[in-house]
Design goal:
- With 415 residues, the protein is mainly α.
- The chain has one domain.
- 71% of the residues lie in helices and 0% in strands.
- It is built from 18 helices and no strands.
- Helix 4 packs across helix 18.
- The longest helix is centred in the middle third of the chain and has 36 residues.
- The radius of gyration is 23 Å and the shape is globular.
- Keywords: Cell membrane, Glycosyltransferase, Membrane, Transferase, Transmembrane, Transmembrane helix.
- It is found in: Cell membrane.
- It is a multi-pass membrane protein.
């Protein structure tokens, strides 16, 4: 971050300019097409405006805070891994994530993903660790999820995963013991926490929306007023589900409303009509989204003028991409090993289910909507948790195989 002076470009610049205006009390920007369409982006702009008011218009401070949030995410990865699997798994997952190249490079980019990911995984840790032991945990979890959603609108996917996770927690003792009394007690305990989390999340969102509209920062609630756009792009076979300038030219000039929505629906219907082509598109999108080189070098280095980079840009980009590929491929392999072990071994508890649900949901939704490799940022800590467990399994095997000592981390030993 100190060596490469990454410029603020694209959507990140639009949000930063809005933050500067909010800090000055000037809300005229909210009439722009960008903020009347993707109103939810104002959440992150408001956060940036608070920092600007406190520390001045200094981009370095915003980037420095990215590092703090990333460090916090590393800590929560360790705590979650140690709780869900074992101490070694937590340490390895946190260590590897700390040195994951996109996590480092994106620190110089004013993206909303650092803060959002930190808030979401803080909530996940409380769900795993404390929701059944602290009478106010449901409140903290709901607030963290709401604030995370304010920064980056992943709330719907996460809420569905949390809901299914709690339902599975309710059913778990019934599946294991078929004890009606135990099931009733557990259902009541977990049900109260679930209701509390959902109520806090939706009430907090409603209050935030009201505050933004009442203060004049926004003309509309913080939402996506054109939700079909992501699907229009996602089903574009010619661009493999990535951004389409042709689609942008076709629809961005149309005002938000029924006419535009109907036109987008027609395009979506046309693009999903050919089922064979649709399946092929899903296959291509899956490979591109989960196998493509991360875009962190583009956003952090490629856009930076050579005079602002004290190294040869091309060599730096090549080295960073090679390193990212090595870590990414190893993470995939080790995550699969950890996942196979989880499926093969009998367990009394399944605390890791939440992260499997998040991964499954995130993969599925990106078969339908626009894809960019930078969108992997949020879900990658969940893969790292599985990778950490996979490493602990391998080390356990090696200890038994070559030292004949009792392993410290067995596949069966899941907290």
């Amino acid at each position: 971050m100190l060596s490469v002076q990454t410029p603020v470009k694209s959507d990140f610049l639009v949000m930063l300019d809005a933050a500067r205006n909010i800090a000055k009390g000037n809300y005229e920007f909210n009439q722009s097409v960008y903020f009347t369409t993707w109103v939810y982006q104002l959440g992150f702009s408001f956060y940036e405006s608070v920092i600007i008011r406190c520390f001045g218009d200094n981009i370095f401070i915003l980037k420095l805070l990215n590092i703090f949030y990333s460090t916090g995410t590393v800590i929560f990865i360790y705590l979650i891994g140690a709780k869900v699997f074992n101490e070694l798994a937590g340490r390895m997952a946190a260590f590897l994530y700390a040195f994951y190249i996109p996590n480092i490079l994106y620190s110089s980019v004013l993206t909303n993903q650092h803060l959002a990911t930190f808030l979401f995984y803080a909530a996940f840790y409380l769900i795993i660790k404390r929701f059944a032991h602290n009478k106010f945990s449901w409140l903290y979890i709901g607030l963290l999820l709401s604030l995370g959603n304010l920064m980056r609108p992943l709330g719907p996917i996460i809420i569905v995963a949390v809901l299914i996770y709690f339902i599975l927690q309710i059913l778990q003792p019934y599946i294991k013991t078929k004890d009606a009394a135990e099931l009733k007690t557990r259902r009541k305990q977990i049900g109260k926490n679930l209701v509390g989390i959902l109520a806090t999340f939706f009430i907090a969102n409603a209050l935030i929306n009201y505050s933004f509209v009442a203060s004049g920062i926004s003309k509309y609630p913080l939402s996506n007023r054109d939700p079909l756009w992501k699907f229009v792009i996602g089903f574009n076979y010619e661009t493999s589900g990535s951004y389409s300038s042709e689609d942008a030219s076709r629809f961005m000039g149309m005002p938000i409303g029924e006419k535009r929505a109907e036109a987008e629906k027609e395009v979506i219907k046309e693009r999903v009509a050919d089922k064979a082509q649709l399946l092929d598109l899903f296959h291509i999108k899956f490979l591109n989204m989960w196998g493509g080189t991360d875009a962190s070098t583009f956003w952090s280095i490629s856009l930076t003028p050579q005079e602002d980079v004290p190294f040869n840009k091309e060599k730096l980009i090549s080295a960073a991409q090679s390193y990212e590929r090595i870590i990414y491929v190893s993470t995939t392999i080790l995550s699969i090993i950890g996942l196979i072990c989880l499926f093969l071994k009998k367990q009394d508890k399944y605390p890791y289910t939440l992260f499997l649900l998040l991964i499954i949901g995130y993969v599925l939704i990106h078969l339908l909507i626009e894809i960019q490799t930078r969108y992997r940022f949020f879900i990658f800590p969940s893969f790292m948790l599985l990778e950490g467990f996979g490493i602990s399994v391998i080390l356990s095997y090696l200890i038994v195989r070559f030292t004949k000592n009792k392993p410290q981390t067995k596949c069966e030993e899941i907290n």
